[in-house]
Amino acid sequence: MLLEIEDLKVYYRSKKGTVKAVDGVSLRIDRGEMVGIVGESGCGKSTLAYSIIRLVQGEVRGKILFDGVNLLELSEEKMRRIRGKEIGMVFQDPMTSLDPLEKIGDQIVETITEHENVDEETAMRRVRELLLKVGLPEDRVESYPHQLSGGQRQRVMIALAIALNPKLLIADEPTTALDVIVQERIMDILEGIKREGKSVILITHDLALASERCDRIAVMYAGWLVEMGKTSEIVKDPLHPYTKGLMDSIPDLWMKKEVKPMPGNPPDLTDPPKGCRFHPRCPLADDVCRREEPPTVNLGDRIVRCWRWANASEG
Question: Are 21 and 58 in contact (CB under 8 A)?
């Protein structure tokens, strides 16, 4: 196991109250697998990702064990050595992550020389190799971010994230606002990284994309992890009503099923509903769902947080 998160809580203080962005999430990431973390906007996916590399400003509690080391107990100096070197991050918006006044080649060179004892000429040779690896011509080292398309900038971000050969790559919505063809190319790159033995966390609101590419899927809702399991099992038989709602809302190209949009919206996390946070939108909710928070139930390789499974035995 490469990464194990135990009872992670990330709370933000605001004038309205405490925002429970991530509230008691536990999950693990094995070596050499791609795990998709899915859910609607505001469910806590990105906060979870940023907490792994300790780039959140809120109150963080729990454990984040990376290669057996609790990242939450490290000094900022030790954490800086892990960011990029051990854990790479592909941020959601490349234009806000890349320096608009510096050539992309120089930006990646700076990352390499900051962490490794190599000269700039050696680093630049590696940058050219990285650009070829992500499907960009070598001469793009001379380009500025504004001279690249959205898909090209995203590939630069991937090259930057893997420049130091990290064990874990976190990709936060890497295909948002890209056309379908470019999406496929980005996902092909991520799959190639996984085949090299690296682990990949894919943060996405697109359950269809995750179901096509990921080994396992973790479903988040209102700061909770409500279901997790092998992709094939979750797609075939979703256990949580929210997961089923996400599956039913995916359009079918061949029109073999009726698309059923999910009613309602995610709750305000400064004042989440009592009991199960999904009960106001759940067609199966009953009195216990409205009164008490559901337990997290382990069903063999699957996890589900729902009262419907509270008395199920571990299989």
Answer: yes
Whole-model pTM? 0.92
Does residue 192 form part of some domain?
yes
Alpha carbons 214 and 193: distance in angstroms, whole number: 13
Specify whether the CB–CB gap between 33 and 195 falls below 8 A: no
The count of structural domains within the chain is 1
Within a domain: 76:
yes
Q: Which position has the token pair 């759940």?
A: 282
Q: What's at 244, amino acid-wise? A: K
The whole domain housing 228 covers: 3-86+166-314
94: in domain: no
- What gap in Å lies between CA 15 and CA 177, rounded to an integer? 32
The answer to whether 228 and 216 are in contact (CB under 8 A) is yes
Beta bridge partners of 299: 302
Three-state secondary structure call for residue 236: helix
Contact 143, 98 (CB under 8 A): no
pLDDT tens digits for range 218-252: 999 999 999 999 999 999 999 999 999 999 988 76
| CATH code of the domain covering residue 253 | 3.40.50.300
- In this structure, which amino acid lies at residue 220? M
DSSP string, 107-141: HHHHHHHHHS---HHHHHHHHHHHHHHTT--GGGG
Q: Is residue 127 part of a domain?
A: no
Q: Report angle CA 28, 175, 152 to the nearest 5 degrees.
A: 120
